[in-house]
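Researcher: Go.
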Amino acid sequence: MSIQTPRWHYLVLGFPFLFEGLSLSIALRAFTGKHGAGQLLNNIIASKDATYTVIAEDSAALSGIVLGFVGILLNDRFHLPVFDGIAPVLIGLLLAAVS
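Model: Structure:
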């Protein structure tokens, strides 16, 4: 069955995207304040700072929200509910990989 009113789905995904994005930006500011802005990815990988966990979790959460959005968008555009089923599987694999 195809989604009848996807606007609500997009709205529901928009709020967590906003909050997770805000949390990620705060964590990145805190991390760059301690370690400097140069070579951010290398600094994050080499760091033993607990902020790394927040950055990894928030990045995974934002990626999962985007995957959910894409699944709903593809379902809405092509009227194929399979996309709505593939998205949560990919989200689960992403979260398992990050944990």
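Model: The mean pLDDT is 90.
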